[in-house]
Amino acid sequence: MESPESFGYVYMLTTPQSDVGVTGWGSGGCTPPGGYDSLSEGYQSSSPDPGSRCKSRVTPLVLRKRRLAANARERRRMQNLNQAFDRLRTFLPQLGQDRQLSKYETLQMAQTYIAALYDLLEQRPSA
Asked: Gly residues composition bias: which ranges (predicted)?
């Protein structure tokens, strides 16, 4: 199995301490909803008061890195899917076509071919 580093999104799995412009629960007096505050003795209520919740801001650099990582994952997913279709096409009979079958045509042909092979097995006389 590939490691998270190979996908380029390890930064999302760790919590960077030196990001400027990003506020979290541990900085600026912001407490998790319904959790303990390290500065006070009591329990913080989880009231729906909008002023009591911390709104963390994500920097444009982090957003860009996340988008690049998502694009890389999607690109890899599509490459793997296309490789699987290419491999499936190698097992299907070629009917003298000059062009490559589309994904839809490949799935239709595979379904038809499997049904035909099944019918051949059913018709085979048992000896």
From this structure: 23-32
